[in-house]
Amino acid sequence: MSTERFDCHYCKESLLGNKYVMKEDTQYCTKCYENLFSNCCEVCSLPIGCNCKDLSYKDCHWHEQCFKCAKCSRPLVEKPFAAKDEQLLCTECYSHEYSSKCSTCKKTIMPGSRKMEYKGNSWHETCFLCHRCQQPIGTKSFIPKDNGYFCVSCFEKQFAYQCCACKKVRILQSHGLDCMGTCLVPSCTPCSPMRGEARLKNHH
Prior knowledge:
By secondary structure, the chain is an alpha+beta fold. 12% of the residues lie in helices and 24% in strands.
């Protein structure tokens, strides 16, 4: 009495006593399954076998041992990472290569941290301070003056003048004063300060 055959659907080799993989109710030996259906690793280009972990990111696949930083080769499995120019980088290497530097402390602004930006310069949120009171400006209005940045309150205290006509405190442009510093605002019209707005970003 003949024994019922149990063969690989593709190569027809017997699967009796051997490992096999089922796909859509069809059996394959592991070699045929890997050649036909396994994803290829982005690093080594070899199939990711049945006994290996298949790590994927944006439709790309890696062996577990190949999933590492392109710069320092540290493993990235279960670690935060960033992608740049089709390469995977650990957060340290990405920061060193591509992140902004704080204009005050000169240190890297790490991905995921909050940063301030104004006219092409960047700061840590805690480094963007009022020149007078040394408090963080955050997203509040500020006024640039002589390579420094002032919160509105401090700017008014340090640079405002009292109008000779109405006695109110005004922030004046230089053309509103005579050579002795006397307020000469025409029609008692206040000059409007040019206030800056820093943009707060979540840095990635």
